[in-house]
């Protein structure tokens, strides 16, 4: 092995102790273990450039969605800024028949699955309970219950096993999710049943305002061994390393080797969501350090050095990103509010009397706002009515 070749656990001056094939300066380092997973990409400039385009487009979409929230067009948005390489590198390693179970921040993974742009924001605008058809893209809609998707993925993987298929289930989770009981139970089942599932943990250093050091005093990857899972730590801001490591984990699962835990070390450069202000709990120096490890700039430097990323190509990619952002914006603004009473649809498999009563009461309440209502008898949800027994205000409506 020459000095430029590395093996699976490597330190490259970042303190990350993780697989890294492309360092912060954009220099590529060979790996006896991982280079084989990049052979296709190394032979085809179009594939190498597509990873770049993907990262530029999803960063642009993320910025547009954040702006849409600030302008009142979305209720909330959880930005992915900084996690483009982790999500694009892993997402592009998947096959169409693999199935993704994600959390709420994996917009870039959804993009690689072919989710229509407007479908990325429907839930966040509050006009639907669910963003897209999971079976059309083999990706479940985002899970907000932290860690629950790891159980769904493990169960799905056991189904794949029973079918004798060679697809893989992939669960995306965060560093904070590692403290959840669901996740630990999923690891036990996945390990003991040898289920074809990849647990892809994006350690973005924060769970809202709690640093990862409050989730674990040891590197997250070290937990894997205790469950009997192979674990690999990868520089999550190195799109090539993420692609290679994910390919290897998928290959293990497809060929009967069972589950793998991947810890992708990355950084949430923005707020937890648009409702959060990280300046209240984060040292600005930390953001500065991670800005130096930006996933896109190192790949840009690398491609430019190879002569692949010319000024024309850069302009073309920026054009793709701008058009995608315009499509997202136009689609978002055109989304109409559903009739309010549809909130009662699909809550239960069968209609029943209590639900019908709640629906009727809410319909009556809404009628109070109808055009032409003179205010008499207008239901005011804040005021309520006075309870004669106690003299206190009792809420109106029967839907309690
Ligand atoms: C079971 C459960 N507990 C708590 C929450 C509230 N909550 C929402 S996001 C979050 C932090 C998750 O952090 P992490 O897993 O690191 O994912 P990240 O937001 O960094 O992508 C918490 C605790 C929740 N949604 N579900
Ligand atoms: Mg996190």
TrEMBL record:
EC number(s) of the enzyme? 1.2.4.4
Where is the region Disordered? 373-400
Can you give the residue ranges of the Dehydrogenase E1 component domain? Answer: 54-318
Chain intervals with Low complexity compositional bias? 379-400
Q: Metal-binding: present as a keyword of the record?
A: no
Q: What class of enzyme is it?
A: oxidoreductase
| Residue ranges of coiled coil | none
Print the organism lineage.
Answer: Bacteria, Bacillati, Actinomycetota, Actinomycetes, Micrococcales
InterPro entries the record matches: Alpha-ketoacid_DH_E1_comp (IPR050771), DH_E1 (IPR001017), PdhA/BkdA (IPR017596), THDP-binding (IPR029061)
Q: What is this protein called?
A: 3-methyl-2-oxobutanoate dehydrogenase subunit alpha
